[in-house]
Amino acid sequence: MPRTNSLAVVVLALATAPAVAHADRRAFTHTYEYQTMPEGETELEIYSTQDREKLKGESAKNFELKLEIEHGITERWDFSIYHVFTQRTGLLADGSDSEDFHFKEIQLRTRYRFAERGELPVDMLVYAEATKEFGEGVYEGELKGIFARDFDRLTAVVNAIGAVELGPAVDEPEVELGWAGGLTYEVIPEWKLGAESWGEKVLEEDHDLAAWAGPAVSWAPAHSFWISSTAGFGLTDASSEIEVRALLGVHL
């Protein structure tokens, strides 16, 4: 075969080959989906979250930056470590004052999938997380049950969340229940559009339910890079009126 024809065959094969799946691409920024990092692969993820207590006028504002490294232990089990930084400005609704940008806490997280996608009527994944607040005797443990189902290009996901905060600096253990869930549609492989909702409630009489909902978009222009974003609008009096989160992933 002439060299020019051989080159044409190679180019055609590359152009028509199926796209490689993104390692841990997220369609949402609060809701976890049915996936783990593949065995032996590593990804850097950066979370940037901002919220305003009130949309109009003077308002307290919060900023959170999370840096995560996650690695696939097996095809169904992965492990992550997070470093979390925060900043607050203005007088917050809970009466607390402003805080300069600082290191807040470290988190360890692991996920395990019970089967391959689509093998069960509902895909199920267990998520466990442990948190240590920097410089304080405060610890938190969290469990998530993640349930998902694909309907062709549409995916539905629900997260059931339970957490407990305890430690020498905590007067009494604090139990929190929450949820996250969403629908996402793959318009084309590079773009997913959807919506999600999330919320939480501390199981004490003086804590009200905080909840948000809003649109979610995910863009993956390359196998090694993706970005997702959600704009959440407060649904209750205990919620900030708007919260925006961007999540960026780089496959190492």
Helices and strands in order:
Blueprint: H1 3-16, E1 42-52, E2 61-72, E3 77-89, E4 99-113, E5 123-133, E6 139-151, E7 154-166, E8 174-188, E9 191-202, E10 210-222, E11 225-234, E12 242-251
Antiparallel strand pairs: 1-2, 1-12, 2-3, 3-4, 4-5, 5-6, 6-7, 7-8, 8-9, 9-10, 10-11, 11-12
Descriptive report:
The chain has about 250 residues and is mainly beta. It has a single domain, classed as Beta Barrel (Lipocalin). About 5% of the residues lie in helices and about 60% in strands. The chain has one helix and twelve strands, in the order αββββββββββββ. The protein has a twelve-stranded antiparallel beta barrel with strand order 1-2-3-4-5-6-7-8-9-10-11-12. The radius of gyration is 21 Å and the shape is globular. The two termini are about 40 Å apart. Residues about 5-20 have low confidence and may be disordered.
